[in-house]
Write a structure and sequence with these properties.
By secondary structure, the chain is mainly α. It has one domain. The chain is 73% helix and 0% strand. It has 15 helices and no strands. It has helices at residues 12-26, 29-34, 41-63, 67-70, 75-98, 101-108, 111-118, 129-147, 159-178, 189-208, 217-244, 247-253, 256-267, 275-291, 293-303. The longest helix is centred in the C-terminal third of the chain and has 28 residues, at 217-244. The radius of gyration is 19 Å and the shape is globular. The two termini are 29 Å apart. It holds the Pfam family EamA. The chain crosses the membrane at residues 12-35, 41-62, 74-94, 106-123, 130-147, 159-178, 190-208, 220-238, 250-271, 277-296. This is Membrane protein. Keywords: Membrane, Transmembrane, Transmembrane helix.
Length: 304
Amino acid sequence: MFGSASASRISRPLATGAGLSAILLWALLALFTVYTGQIPPFQLTAMTFFVAFCLALAKWLVKGDNIGALFRLPGRLWMLGVGGLFGYHFFYFMALKNAPAAEAGLIAYLWPLLIVLFSTLLPNERLRSFHVLGALLSLIGAGVLVTKGQGVAFDSRYGLGYGAALVCAFIWSGYSVLSRRFSHVSTDVIGIFCGVTSVLALICHLAFEQTLWPSGLVEWLAVLGLGIGPVGAAFFLWDVGVKHGDIQGLGVLSYLSPLLSTLLLVGMGAAVFSWSLVAGCLLITLGAAVGSLNIFRELVGKRS
């Protein structure tokens, strides 16, 4: 799972499938987080990224990899990896603390659309109308889900939070697109970035939060589940996807994450069914279908 992703050893459709798997794992993020109780966000980030780092470390030790070599990275890659993983979470928490969750979440979820747009700066990538149309339809659908159909009211008092949410969107979209420039670098380095992110999150926790440990087995299992899946394997799979897969299609398909997340919360009784939920689901599904036409074409072409 955490091995290197060489362009010569992984096909574009398979890499796209890896990226889609990351999106599906991120759909579990909200559900698992609900079961972590009152653990502060930076503490939770430190704990879950530490689990992800430990998994990567175990893999390196079993294979006898030269762990020291993984730390010998160019400065720009350190900035990209740590800035992407830690920077996104730092500004996301800042957004939620300084703006209403619905508006902040909607702004932060501009990142899939930005991935579609920014990907045109990459070699051999071409922006097509169905990419943009699919991303816009899914963005509207995500907005309906996030706001529960109540509309959005941006208040200048929350300018700091809105700005932080916008920074989130640019950080993650920029990280995803620029990762393509390092397609020759092993996906193993994500484990290093997870470890550094855990340390930085711990520093923020000690500076801004009061420590609250999980109160029971369920909460400990939720933390472990987050570290293994949505905060662990997902980032490794996403690295493979954006480096070697259909990055524009993955950008559009990323809107499936809030859709599936909401459906899971409803199914588990942690969210309430509504007609805005239905409308949001339909819009996201339609947008994902329209925006991922290239993926379907590639699959059909490969089979034929």
